[in-house]
Amino acid sequence: QVQLVESGGGLVQTGGSLRLSCAASGRTFSRSTMGWFRQAPGKEREFVVGIGWSGGVTSYAESVKGRFTISRDNSKNTVYLQMNSLKPEDTAVYYCAAALPGEGQYGHWGQGTQVTVSS
Fold first, then answer.
1. In this structure, are strands 113-118 and 10-13 parallel, antiparallel, or unpaired?
2. How many CB atoms lie within 10 A of CB 117?
3. Which of 9, 25, 41, 50 could be 35's S-S partner, Cβ–Cβ 3.0 to 4.6 Å?
4. Cα(21)–Cα(49) distance, rounded to whole angstroms?
């Protein structure tokens, strides 16, 4: 099993930056696919970006391309989401998720961290 704890959320002005972190417990982190999702008030949870165990990145959601960057440090069991040029529409609860080796989908979730972008 794996436990995920996000941090780094907060309130930022339009155009600002934040870096989210997701610390994972467990020995399978380095072989797991990790992802970031977000859910805005009144909206469905949406996929933002994923990263494979070796660092290969899936496609970014169109709305964040060129502004967000995912990375991971397997030595620290941590995945990051660098968010630049933030917009009010980026306001959401951001969730970290993991798909363990052999699992075909994200089945493990953090508690989420709130990101609020003021205009």
1. parallel
2. 20
3. 50
4. 14
3-state secondary structure of 98: strand
In the block, tokens 């990790």 appear at 34
List CB contacts of 78: < 8 A, sequence separation 6 or more: 21, 22, 23, 24, 72
- Residues whose CB falls within 8 Å of the CB of residue 23, separated by 6 or more in sequence, listed in order: 4, 5, 7, 76, 77, 78
For 81, the token pair is 């989401």
| Cα 60 from Cα 27, distance rounded (Å) | 27
Question: Contact, 63 vs 89, CB < 8 A?
Answer: yes
Scan for tokens 């972008």, then name that residue: 117
Return the pLDDT at 55.
Answer: 84
Q: How far apart are CA 108 and CA 119, in angstroms?
A: 33
Instruction: Name the one residue in this structure whose structure tokens are 């934040």.
Output: 18
pLDDT digits (tens, 9 = 90+) for 16-26: 999 999 999 98
Name residue, tokens 């992802």: 35
